[in-house]
Amino acid sequence: MTQVILGFDTSCYQTSCAMVSLDGALLAESRKMLVVPDHERGLRQSEAVFQHIKQLPDVLKECIGHIKRFEMSAVCASSQPVPQPDSYMPVFHAGVSFAQAIAATHQVPCFLTSHQEGHFAAAGMAVEGLPDNHLAVHLSGGTTEIVRVRFDGYTSIGKTLDISAGQLLDRVGVKMGYPFPAGASVEKLALGLPVTGRYPAIVKGASVSFSGIETAAMRDLDDERLSRASVAGELFDAIARSVSKMIIQAAEQTQVYDVLVTGGVASSKLLRAALDERLAKRANRIKTYYGLPEYAGDNAVGVALIGCNKYILHKENDHGNCIKRERTV
Prior knowledge:
Blueprint: E1 2-10, E2 14-21, E3 26-33, H1 45-64, E4 70-80, H2 91-106, E5 110-114, H3 115-124, E6 134-139, E7 144-150, E8 153-159, H4 165-176, H5 183-190, E9 202-204, E10 207-209, H6 211-223, H7 228-254, E11 258-262, H8 269-282, E12 287-290, H9 301-318
Parallel strand pairs: 1-4, 4-5, 6-11, 11-12
Antiparallel strand pairs: 1-2, 2-3, 6-7, 7-8, 9-10
Helix pairs in contact: 1-2, 3-9, 4-6, 4-7, 5-7, 6-7, 7-8
């Protein structure tokens, strides 16, 4: 009978469950988006928690339905956005409570991690040659941050000073009339268009500001100075220029040149190509690594993988073996 680790992630806009074996193989996963009303740019935390509670049983049923016979070894859930003491969002309590109930029923350990660490772990499972000491960029609807990853943990190097890259795309996309989340729709509109660098890339150190770009893009739409397609193209160009500057600054500061890039925004082929093109021209020592696009957005695969690592360390501790420091990614 297959021993499995079950992972849960209840982010601001997606309910996710994944199952991995003890050797780290992905056995099954399931996700379901939360419903955002038309013309809205997001959900209140209370509404998101309510939807997670409704969706978790169905998401779990779909995930475990792929495996006929298994033995539950442990459960893991994301409990906070990032692994910092003051990091908190109510949505993650839905997944944690569900995970703890399952773990108690099966009398197995329940481990906790962060949403961001789950992103890094999911991206890392599909890349080769990424050293333990590297930079990691998280680009999503809730986060834009670059961190230095080492074997014993990681340190934030730079982040957004206002809104995230995903919020920028979603807010302007909803203004254009697209449903939330709007990033994929805005990308389709932007494909193949020339850009002029109309919107400034505002980077201070390794931190970035996107609010000025949002204001300028909204003004262009209101005044009909540019077509929607042109605004979309300029948005992706501005994000690529901004993130490339963040990476260059962080690399110069840390002398680390291997960079893992993940998060929902990083699933964009347009952004990946633009980012790599700019880095190749301005900092050819930097090497970027991308996970599979289907695991760049919110999912529980990385959470389950982290749970697997924690379980193995837990078993080693129980048997009195020498404990290695746990990897963050």
